[in-house]
């Protein structure tokens, strides 16, 4: 039972760090031989594993964090990497010192320079201790891997040190921050932490990867620490994040910061057993990280969820929370929370909707804290951005070429729809390119495991949707490729923000069609500079045929491709930014080729009608003519010249049905009757009567004559010969039928 004041994952996480700390260079230096050292490490590993199991088992019963033991470990591993890198840097510094000493000695001994080099490297091996056991290949890998960490250390913010907060922040928190390897505050941290510690409401905006998480977590922890919060006080801080992965990430940073505190922390989010979460909330979670939907559920249904003493509400990526349709939930959540509380909003971009939310939840006008450099440039300095203009059918060829050339890189490739991610994952897999994929329609377990696999990898390719665009702090991502431009233009900034984080460097490549260049104007307005680049794809001409073959032989992929193409069109149809994404500019043939189809697949009628409505049909210039040439849509949708107008029938389903039926009935009757076309109005009137007669029978025809009091003979003379013949035939038919009936009787 978790009744004591403690952080549930703390032990698990802490152990991970201990495990790493178990191999300090000094200890290794002392060991006499390699075997002894290896045995020692083994023992430590085993001991730590055993202890870890105990902890995990102990908490499995009571805490929700036990759902993510591996993820916690993995993530903490990646976070701890920074520390390890720091140590290695120190070690390398030592080794250089030693090497220079050696050189002096060698100079004294008049040895050759090359000898000196060898010796110095040998020395550095001794200093690093365990590195002698590591193969050179591994060392190279590690060096590469730590590149970004080195950059991070090199570019550690030169601002105020965290030590300056000594008077305001507890020693427990400061120690944890120091243990995380952070000495100086980033700009947003230096600006936001002091007013937040004073209890002010703050709306913070700063570039991606600038350390916003610590900026809101430190004051939130300090607030509860100063109030001596215990589990019996319930929840004092709620941190809302838009995605599950971001929640987990924030939660892990939180657990690191709470390492020396007795405050409790927990996480609730979609895709996790609610019963377990109920138990967790019953225990009293002081700092709670949550996704909006699940938080609302517990606020409405879990009686034990105690928020009476709620002090602080943090909304991370506030604009995204409203974008992804959580507006209603957020309004309800805010209505259910105590009015008197401190509120913090953080994001890399601003939105008008956030103003609305700010007005709803902040008691006074919030203090605007903004990274000054945002006014000059919306993205970080270490980021190189380029765009390539390509036609829809060439996009995949360029991507394939790009991935082939960057096999040893860590790459994220963004798509607009889940179906596109699934489809291209299948195709690349069939083309023997190993890729990971993540999207919103995946089960949570799969999503989490893929996320951690990508985090851990030195080089890997991750295909993803915008579910991965916000807040993910993945180490050493080299490239952000946007295969589809973002549906929401401001999402561009968040996508490219997954690289060049914390002072590091990275590159981004955007694929756009010529007609989508409106996005560049938007980006320019947002102070994002993107350079044009030309990328070759000529070598890949036969790739298109290979993809076609794959699709032909794999029905699953064929279906996925069709669905992905449909989703693409749907996204275009539904886009709010018609000035950038205009359906009229899409050439469906090229689009289909981009999805590996020779000719476009048959689309559902509903979508056909929607497309027909939107695309120019009168002129029949581009779309219809092109479609006709490959037979696309011609089966089901009439041509522009036809009297049948889709625009009329698309209003309601029932109406359209009627009109269609009437239309085809008229057409069929005209065909089967083979009646001559009427030459003048009089004849047209007679024709109508004749058709009426044919359709409804002679009886109805005569009854009509009776009603109007005009015998059929009255109009006889004006009838054309064909009409008279028809009348004669029907009369004959009638008498014949009568006589036959008599015979039967
Ligand atoms: N003071 C600091 N010094 C050095 N590195 C830091 C500091 N604070 C945070 N970091 C590191 O910077 C990286 C980015 O931090 P964080 O995820 O908080 O950024 P963010 O501004 O929230 O980004 P995003 O807008 O993408 O969510 C993390 O790896 C974190 O460990």
Protein architecture, described:
Helix content is 54%, strand content 8%. With 745 residues, the chain is of the alpha/beta class. It has 30 helices and 14 strands. The strands form two sheets. Strands 3-4-2-5-6-1-7 form a seven-stranded parallel sheet, with helices on both faces. A seven-stranded parallel sheet has the order 10-11-9-12-13-8-14, sandwiched between helices. The relative contact order is 0.07. The longest helix has 41 residues, at 69-109. The chain binds adenosine-5'-triphosphate. Adenosine-5'-triphosphate binds at residues 152, 156-157, 182, 184-186, 189, 206, 208-214, 348, 471, 473, 497, 501-502.
Number of strands: 14
Distance between the termini: 97 Å
Helix coverage percent = 40-55%
Oligomer: single chain
Spatial strand order of the main sheet = 3-4-2-5-6-1-7
Low-confidence spans: pLDDT under 50, at least 5 residues? Answer: 1-136, 141-155, 614-657, 700-719
Shape: globular
Count of alpha and pi helical runs = 30
Taking all residues together, what is the mean pLDDT?
71
Strand content: 5-15%
Structural class of the secondary structure composition?
alpha/beta
Largest sheet: 7 strands, parallel
Cα-atom Rg, whole angstroms?
36 Å
Distinct ligand kinds: adenosine-5'-triphosphate
Domain Helicase C-terminal: 382-549
Biased composition (Basic residues): 137-146, 648-660
EC number: 3.6.4.13
Function: RNA helicase.
């Amino acid at each position: 039972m978790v009744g004591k004041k403690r952080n549930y994952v703390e032990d698990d996480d802490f152990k991970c760090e201990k495990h790493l700390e178990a191999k300090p260079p000094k200890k290794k230096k002392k060991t006499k031989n390699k075997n002894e050292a290896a045995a020692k490490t083994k023992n430590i590993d085993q001991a730590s594993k055993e202890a870890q199991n105990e902890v995990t088992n102990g908490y499995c019963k009571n805490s929700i964090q036990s759902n993510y033991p591996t993820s916690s470990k993995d993530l903490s591993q990646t976070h701890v990497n920074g520390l390890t890198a720091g140590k290695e840097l120190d070690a390398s510094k030592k080794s250089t010192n030693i090497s220079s000493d050696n050189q002096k000695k060698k100079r004294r001994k008049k040895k050759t320079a090359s000898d000196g080099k060898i010796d110095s490297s040998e020395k550095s091996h001794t200093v690093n201790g365990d590195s002698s056991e590591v193969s050179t290949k591994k060392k190279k890998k590690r060096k590469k891997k730590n590149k970004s960490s080195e950059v991070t250390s090199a570019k550690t913010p030169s601002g105020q040190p965290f030590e300056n907060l000594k008077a305001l922040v507890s020693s427990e928190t400061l120690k944890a921050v120091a243990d995380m390897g952070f000495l100086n505050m980033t700009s947003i941290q230096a600006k936001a932490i002091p007013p937040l510690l004073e209890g002010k409401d703050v709306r913070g905006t700063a570039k991606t990867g600038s350390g916003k998480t610590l900026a809101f977590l430190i004051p939130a922890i300090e607030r509860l620490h100063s109030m001596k919060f215990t589990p019996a006080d319930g929840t004092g801080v709620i941190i809302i994040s838009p995605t599950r992965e971001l929640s987990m990430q924030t939660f892990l940073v939180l657990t690191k910061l709470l390492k020396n505190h007795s405050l409790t922390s927990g996480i609730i989010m979609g895709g996790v057993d609610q019963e377990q979460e109920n138990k967790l909330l019953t225990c009293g979670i002081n700092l709670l990280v949550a996704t909006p939907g699940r938080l609302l559920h517990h606020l409405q249904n879990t009686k034990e969820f105690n928020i009476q003493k709620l002090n602080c509400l943090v909304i991370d990526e506030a604009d995204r929370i409203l974008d992804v349709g959580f507006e209603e939930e957020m309004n309800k959540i805010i209505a259910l929370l105590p009015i008197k509380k401190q509120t913090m909003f953080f994001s890399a971009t601003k939105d008008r909707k956030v103003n609305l939310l700010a007005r709803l939840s902040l008691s006074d006008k919030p203090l605007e804290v903004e990274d000054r450099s945002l006014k000059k440039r919306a993205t970080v300095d270490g980021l190189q951005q380029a765009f390539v203009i390509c036609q829809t059918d060439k996009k995949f060829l360029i991507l394939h070429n790009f991935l082939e050339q960057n096999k040893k890189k860590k790459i994220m490739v963004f798509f607009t729809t889940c179906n596109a991610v699934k489809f291209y994952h299948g195709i690349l897999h069939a083309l023997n390119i190993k890729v990971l994929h993540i999207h919103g329609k995946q089960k949570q377990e799969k999503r989490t495991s893929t996320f951690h696999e990508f985090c851990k990898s030195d080089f890997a390719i991750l295909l993803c949707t915008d579910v991965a665009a916000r807040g993910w702090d993945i180490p050493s991502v080299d490239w952000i490729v946007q295969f589809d431009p973002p549906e929401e233009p401001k999402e561009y900034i968040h996508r490219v923000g997954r690289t060049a984080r914390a002072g590091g460097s990275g590159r981004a490549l955007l694929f756009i069609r010529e007609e989508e260049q409106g996005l560049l104007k938007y980006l320019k307005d947002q102070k994002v500079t993107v350079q044009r680049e030309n990328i070759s794809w000529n070598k890949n001409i036969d790739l298109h045929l290979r993809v076609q073959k794959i699709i032909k032989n794999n029905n699953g992929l064929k279906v996925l491709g069709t669905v992905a193409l449909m989703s693409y069109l749907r996204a275009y149809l539904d886009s709010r930014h018609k000035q950038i994404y205009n359906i009229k500019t899409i050439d469906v043939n090229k689009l289909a080729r981009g999805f590996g189809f020779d000719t476009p697949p048959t689309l559902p009628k509903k979508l056909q009608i929607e497309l027909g409505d939107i695309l120019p049909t009168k002129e029949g210039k581009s779309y219809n003519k092109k479609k006709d040439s490959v037979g696309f849509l011609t089966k089901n949708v009439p041509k522009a010249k036809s009297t049948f107008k889709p625009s009329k029938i698309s209003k309601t389903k029932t109406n359209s049905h009627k009109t269609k039926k009437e239309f085809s009935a008229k057409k069929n009757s005209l065909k089967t009757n083979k009646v001559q076309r009427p030459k003048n109005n009089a004849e047209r009137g007679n024709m109508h009567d004749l058709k009426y007669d044919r359709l409804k029978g002679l009886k109805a025809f005569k009854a009509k004559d009776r009603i109007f009091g005009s015998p059929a003979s009255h109009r006889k003379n004006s009838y054309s010969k064909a009409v008279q013949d028809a009348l004669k035939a029907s009369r004959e038919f009638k008498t014949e039928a009568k006589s036959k009936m008599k015979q039967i009787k």
